[in-house]
């Protein structure tokens, strides 16, 4: 007879354990990658993201983010995919999550949040996000973001898409946003 050993249950599976459901194993004993598979759990999302296949990248990143909730790079790319697909509320959640993970220091997430809030018509919050944007490697982009934030105070809602497009194009030209996109 074997002695009962306590089983460590990850926090995300605790609810399943309480309901008496099967708990997935974290690492199966034969979890070696096959010859054609990449070792990274984010490889499928990375490949689709690089090819600008945002729906496929979004699905792959959502799946891989479930296992790695605190990966800012994956969350940034997921937020960008959602932004490109016009799912601005979900993109906002992802960018805010990255900013919480990085104590507000991630410039990609800060710009993504500003653009997303601008797309949602949240003027005050977009102004605050763009004013807080600071990229020491791209001083011109930082200055542009702040000028656009200042213009938001007096601009009418009809000019928001043009301001957002200007900021997007500049961020793409300066290499902060990927060069492939719908805008």
Automatic annotation (TrEMBL):
Against InterPro entries, the record matches this protein to: TPR-like_helical_dom_sf
Superkingdom of source: Bacteria
SUPFAM superfamilies hit by this protein: TPR-like
Question: What protein name is recorded for this chain?
Answer: Uncharacterized protein
Its lineage opens with:
Bacteria, Pseudomonadati, Thermodesulfobacteriota, Desulfovibrionia, Desulfovibrionales
């Amino acid at each position: 007879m074997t002695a009962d050993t306590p089983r460590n249950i990850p926090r995300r599976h605790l609810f399943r354990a309480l309901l008496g459901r099967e708990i997935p194993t974290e690492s199966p004993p034969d979890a070696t990658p096959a010859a054609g598979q990449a070792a990274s759990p984010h490889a499928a999302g990375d490949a689709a993201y690089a090819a600008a296949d945002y729906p496929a990248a979004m699905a792959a990143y959502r799946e891989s983010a479930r296992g790695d909730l605190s990966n800012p790079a994956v969350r940034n790319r997921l937020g960008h995919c959602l932004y490109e697909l016009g799912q601005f509320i979900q993109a906002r959640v992802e960018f805010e999550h990255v900013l919480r993970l990085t104590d507000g220091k991630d410039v990609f997430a800060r710009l993504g949040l500003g653009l997303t809030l601008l797309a949602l018509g949240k003027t005050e919050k977009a102004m605050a996000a763009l004013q807080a944007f600071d990229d020491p490697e791209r001083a011109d982009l930082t200055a542009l973001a702040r000028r656009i934030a200042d213009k938001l105070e007096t601009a009418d809602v009809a000019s928001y898409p043009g301001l957002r497009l200007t900021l997007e194009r500049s961020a793409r030209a300066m290499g902060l946003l990927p060069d492939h996109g719908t805008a």
